[in-house]
Each structure stands twice: as structure tokens, then as C-alpha cells.
Amino acid sequence: MNNPVIIVGAGLSGLRAASLLTAQGVKCRVLEARDRIGGRVLSTFDPNRPDLGKFDLGPTWFWPQYESHIANLVKELKLETFEQYKKGEILLERFQIKPPERCVLKENSDEKWVRLTGGVQSLIDALAETIPSEIVELETRVKKIHLNEAGDITVEAELSDGKMKKFPADAVVLALPPRLVAHYIEFSPSLPPSLITDIVKKPTWMAGQAKAVAVYDRPFWRELGLSGYVLSAVGPLEEIYDASPNKGSGALFGFFGMPPEARKKMGQDKILQLVLNQLVKLFGSEAKNVKAIFYKDWSSDSETAVEEDFSPLKNYQSYGQPPVEGVWEKKIIFAGTETNSQYSGHLEGALQSAEQAVFEIINLINIPL
């Protein structure tokens, strides 16, 4: 190959693709619109209290008994893991004016929900260590991809200072949500209408979601015989889990039941006050003693969500590899969790899609695996 493979997106898929291509000696560059790597992986901490730990505002778990690609990669990168805390009773919150009900959840003893020590960001950081740092260009927003009659590809991107930069490419891996491709990247010649229709129908995983994490000095609910798991018909959080690190502080995180428009109208301060009120109702007055609270509304993240994503997620059946035909066949390759039909929405899906994209590129240039 004369020119590098351009990878659009420095999330898990993009970085995994870059790592695999680098290992095969294939030149590549990763262009990322954000000012950070990781995409929808986001592990945060309180800079004033780093001792409390890191907490995931994006994906949190993987299931090694089903998901071999991420399980093997975690072992390969020598990352530390621990199992999700599940001991104790769960709470059911069915009515606003009644206290929650305690009950025992029948647990599948074989199913392990596994978390990464230091958050999923530790996986992103470890992957980044496997590729030369200079091939990742942050704050580089791809705006146009041009294919000339000779089959040469040019990727045009806008830099943080507003200037445009052109990158020649032999192939392009689109490792970002398909709807972002449809909305923000211009193709010349245009993509086939059937392809546009397909990628617009693929909802962006997590794009309509928001997460809140409340951090405490210890997981006090465990002392009450509670697992931290809550199912609520009242809200604002409809599912709550123990998000504590494997040692030290305690934390609870939850997914919201209210739609994106309602969250936006209410505002972050009011939402977080409602969250704390709910946690106090569920876990008692000690839940007032929050040490830090984090909130991420993915629907307001322009690098994640488009307007179609504000509706509830329904089209699971539309996930899978988009049908690239015509002049763009073997020139652009889609990756990302939405393009994997079996594990869409999971970290496993992101990794499998990256490995499939690299397999296609390797076949194109006839490098023996």
C-alpha cells in the first residue's frame, strides 16, 4: 500500500483496528474529532479526590463467559478485573408515596458481570500504548471523503483552528456511529441510497441515555444487606447498580427513565437533586453524604447523538454490517459496535467489528495472517 489506511474515530473499534494494523506492519492514521481518545468509553474521577477512584459514564461491564474477544484482549494487555458486586437483596421502587420493597433476586451463578479496575478507560489507555502516539490526531474532524476515477482516496478534515487538512488513503475505516457518518461526512461520489438508508436506520447505542454516579466514602448499603441493585418505576433513575471500585470508596450509578427532551428542559442541577432525593429514599439518610457526583447525558454529546437518536431505541434488528457496493466497495469499511450483529451495543461488538475490518484490509493487500 502506498498510502495509509485512515481510521475515522479513536474509540475502542478505531484503536483496536489501529493496533492490529500496526502489528501487521500496515501504515495507518487515526483521525478523532474529540480532544480525547475513547469515544463512548468515558471513565472519570474527582481531581480533588483521586483517591475515590474512577467511574464509568459509558460502558461498564463485559461478560467473559460469552465474550471471548474482549476477555482475551484484557488478558493479553494484563489488565486487572473484578466481578460486579451482587450480594444482598435488591430494591423494587413501585410507588412514589410508598417505601421500596426488598426482595431476593434469583441469580444465575454462572453469569459473571466483569468490570475493569480503573474503569473501561484502562482498556483504551492500554490499547493506545500498542500504537505509535503520532498516528492519532485529535480535534481532527473528517468532513469529506473523495474517490477519484483512478481509485485514489482523499480524506479532508477540519482542524481545531478551522484549517482544512487533506490525507491520502488507500482505504478508510469508519469506526464511528453510522448515523454520524450519514449526517456529517460528505462523500464524492455520493454513497448509494441503499447504503444511506441502512446506516440512518442504525440507532447509536447509548445516544439517548444519560448516567449519574454518586460516590461515597464506603459502600454503606452493603452493611444493610443490600446489593445496590434497584429497579424503579418512579425514577428519575430506573435502574441502579453498585458502581464501587474493587476496594476503597463506594458508588452507585443509574440509568435514567426520563427521555432526553425532559432532561434537557429540567437541567443538570435539578436532575441531580432528584437523583440524590431518590437515593435517600432508597438507601436512607446516609445517602446524603455524597463525596462526588458525576453526570453524563450522551444525547447532548454532538460526537455521539443526532436527532433521530432522541427516540427510544427500537431497531435492534437493523444492527450489522452496512452493505457497501459500487465504487465504494473495498474503499470504505464500517466498524463500531452498531456494525456487529451478534454483540451490538457491547464492547465485544466494537472489538469484533474492528477485527473484521482489519481482516478485510489484510485481504485487500494480500498480507498473510
Question: What would you say this structure looks like, in words?
Answer:
The protein is of the alpha/beta class and 369 residues long. 23% of the residues lie in helices and 25% in strands. The protein contains eight helices and 20 strands. Helix 1 runs parallel beside helix 3 and helix 1 packs parallel to helix 8. The longest helix has 19 residues. InterPro entries: Amino_oxidase, FAD/NAD-bd_sf, Flavin_MAO. This is Flavin monoamine oxidase family protein. It comes from Scopulibacillus cellulosilyticus. Belongs to the flavin monoamine oxidase family.
Span from first to last CA? 16 Å
Q: What is the strand tally? A: 20
Helix fraction? 10-25%
Largest sheet properties = 7 strands, mixed
**Strand content range:** 15-25%
Mean model confidence by pLDDT: 94
Globular, elongated, flat, extended or rod-shaped: what is the shape? elongated
User: How large is the count of helical segments?
Assistant: 8
Structural class: alpha/beta
Q: How do the strands of the widest beta sheet line up side by side? A: 7-6-16-17-18-15-19
Rg from Cα: 22 Å
Q: Which series of helices and strands comes N to C? A: EHEEEHEEEEHEEEEEHEHEEEEHHEEH
Instruction: Give the low-confidence spans.
Output: none
How are the SSEs placed, and which strands pair?
Blueprint: E1 5-8, H1 12-23, E2 28-31, E3 43-44, E4 55-56, H2 68-76, E5 81-83, E6 89-93, E7 101-103, E8 114-116, H3 121-128, E9 136-137, E10 140-147, E11 153-159, E12 164-169, E13 171-174, H4 178-184, E14 186-188, H5 193-200, E15 210-216, E16 226-232, E17 237-242, E18 250-256, H6 260-266, H7 268-283, E19 292-297, E20 332-334, H8 347-365
Parallel strand pairs: 1-2, 1-13, 2-9, 6-16, 10-14, 13-20
Antiparallel strand pairs: 3-4, 5-8, 6-7, 10-11, 11-12, 15-18, 15-19, 16-17, 17-18
Helix pairs in contact: 1-3, 1-8
